[in-house]
Amino acid sequence: MAGSERELVPQDGVGVADALQRLWTPHRMAYIRGENKPEGESSSGCPFCGLTKLADADALIVARGETVYAVLNLYPYNPGHLMVVPYRHVADYTDLTDAETDELARFTQRAMRVGRKVAAPHGFNIGMNQGVVAGAGIAAHLHQHLVPRWGGDANFMPVIGHTKVLPQLLGETRALLADAWTD
């Protein structure tokens, strides 16, 4: 075998050489296993409640308001995927106060403006999954997703390879968004 082909054959003899290049994302196993997800409705152990105690850069918090904050998703679908989260540990959208509802809406608008300024997406997916059955990964603490979208961003990688290629580290993305948020 030629040198480059030899590298495709697993050294331990497990698996079949198939000439495919692989992007290994072992950090995703924490998400798949559900690590750090809170049990039940309690705020104890809730990652969203815990983030607010950390420095913004460490928590990937882009901006803080009076009743909500914007934070990058640790497992983003696209670069700039952030969430608007109330400080208060509340599960259901209908349980938000008027002030929380208003600020959540204003933060969503601001996040769209900032995203457009920083990365010029062609559109956005915005939404929240209410309850585990609806797809909420952390159902006990409401959070609204804002996912920037570009034409062609759903290519063969996620569709066939179940892998998302992100061109920027989360810390760099947070810094760009946080800087633009204050402009």
Q: How many beta-strand elements?
A: 5
What composes the largest sheet?
Answer: 5 strands, antiparallel
| CATH third-level topology | HIT family, subunit A
Q: Can you say what the CATH homologous superfamily is?
A: HIT-like
Tell me roughly what share of residues is in helical segments.
25-40%
* First-residue to last-residue Cα separation: 57 Å
Question: What structural class do the secondary elements suggest?
Answer: alpha+beta
**Total domain modules:** 1
Main-sheet strand order equals 1-2-3-5-4
The CATH C-level name is Alpha Beta
Quaternary state, please? single chain
- From the coordinates shown, what is the CATH architecture? 2-Layer Sandwich
Describe the structure.
It is a single chain. This protein starts with a helix and ends with a helix. Strand 1 and strand 2 (68-72) form a beta hairpin. The model is unreliable at 1-6 (pLDDT under 50). The relative contact order is 0.17. The protein is globular, with a radius of gyration of 19 Å. Helices cover 32% and strands 14% of the residues. It is built from seven helices and five strands; from the N terminus they run ααααβββαββαα. The protein is α+β, with helices and mostly antiparallel strands. The protein has helices spanning 3-6, 29-33, 47-51, 56-59, 98-119, 156-160, 170-182, and strands at residues 61-64, 68-72, 82-86, 123-127, 144-149. It has one domain (3-182): HIT family, subunit A. Helix 5 (98-119) packs across helix 7. A five-stranded antiparallel β-sheet has the order 1-2-3-5-4.
